[in-house]
Amino acid sequence: MAVVATNLKKGQCIAYEGDRGIVLQLDHRTPGKGNALIAATIRSFNSGNKKTIRFASSDKVEIVETDRVKLEYSYSDGEGFHFMDLNTYETTTLQPDFVGDVTKYMKEGQEVEVLYVGGDAVSVTLPATVELKITQSSEGVKGDTANNPTKPAELETGVTVQVPLFVKEGEVIKINTEDGSYLGRA
Predict the structure, then answer these.
(1) Are 183 and 129 in contact (CB under 8 A)?
(2) Strands (DSSP E) found in 88-167
(3) CATH 3.30.70.100 fits domain 129-185
(4) Is the N end or the C end of the chain the one with fewer CB atoms within 10 Å?
């Protein structure tokens, strides 16, 4: 199915330049002269690289049929990361290099969305925010309140993020999975 480039949406999967990928960001640009352009930032399913492609507003773009499935992360071992479909109870195993950076904020029992193209898994997406427990953090220095100070805190998944001084070890906090920023206490 082909659509006009102006009808592209973030999250759609498209075929472009002999490759397939997911649209991460769209920017409609109208230069002083000429027709409008659509700059689409796309992550390739084959290489994982991001690329910005410019389409004229009248260009046709081929949409790739996809299937999005919610799976629950069960555990990981030497074979990879194991996920369970909550409807069919079937288990899917994905390799560590495929799952990638998503593991920083993924804990057992967490729901993720796996994108399938032609029956093959092509990407794993976490919710926009996750709640994780702080396993290790130093105490804030009393009186150090200038310029919104932060301190490092290690989370239950092993990743370290910056949190405000008042947050203590053992607390559960909300984290933005896009950039790893602290959003607040859970």
Answers:
(1) yes
(2) 91-94, 111-117, 120-125, 129-137, 150-155, 160-164
(3) no
(4) N
Q: What are phi and psi of 78, to 5 degrees?
A: -65, -25
Place of tokens 């994780």: 132
d(CA 183, CA 174): 5
DSSP β-ladder status, 182-185 and 172-176: antiparallel
Give the Cα separation of 91 and 145 in Å (integer): 49
Return the domain boundaries, the chain: 2-63, 67-125, 129-185
Q: Model-level pTM?
A: 0.76
What token pair was written down for 116? 């399938």
176 close to 130: Cβ distance less than 8 angstroms: no
